[in-house]
Write a structure and sequence with these properties.
The chain contains five helices and no strands. Helix 1 packs antiparallel against helix 4 and helix 3 (about 60-85) packs antiparallel against helix 4 (about 90-120). The protein is mainly α. The longest helix is centred in the C-terminal third of the chain and has 33 residues, at about 90-120. It starts with a helix and ends with a helix. Bound molecules: fe (ii) ion (FE2). Fe (ii) ion binds near residues 7, 11, 44, 48 and 107.
Length: about 140
């Protein structure tokens, strides 16, 4: 399993939180999956923003993708906070949840269909190796904390 598989697994986990939020009842039942989703997105975004995007944006072909993905993390953060601030109104919650779900699907599609495969082609073994080591170290550090 390489670091892109690790990042893909994080995407799977975020999707799972969306599914949990869809079936959670109102109020406090939403809190746990929402908190988990927030923490998971922050860790995922921090790995990509710290170790992956800076390496990839050196390639001309990747620069506009990376700029878009950076914005996509900010959009996801904002949508999660909007969902967290949603009143006990099921219709409003469902609307915001589907907006968040669509944004996650777009992020996942852009990365898994375009960015990761292109990164594998463009980046050399040294760059990919350093991304892998950095991500492994960050995960170990987080697990030890
Ligand atoms: Fe991602």
């Amino acid at each position: 399993m390489d670091h892109f598989d690790v990042l893909k697994n994080q995407h799977r986990s975020m999707r799972k939180r969306i599914d949990e939020l869809r079936v959670a009842g109102g109020g406090s039942a939403r809190q746990e999956p929402l908190d988990e989703l927030r923490v998971e997105l922050e860790f995922h975004a921090s790995l990509e923003e710290t170790y992956v995007y800076p390496v990839l944006e050196r390639f001309d072909d990747m620069r506009s993708w990376i700029r878009m993905l950076w914005e996509s993390h900010d959009e996801l953060r904002q949508l999660i906070e909007e969902l967290a601030g949603c009143p006990e109104d099921d219709a409003a919650f469902a609307t915001r949840l589907s907006r968040l779900s669509e944004a996650i699907e777009k992020h996942v599609g852009d990365e898994e269909m375009h960015v990761y495969p292109n990164a594998r082609l463009l980046a050399g073994d040294v760059e990919l190796g350093s991304i892998s080591r950095n991500i492994e170290a960050a995960i170990r550090k987080r697990q030890a904390a």
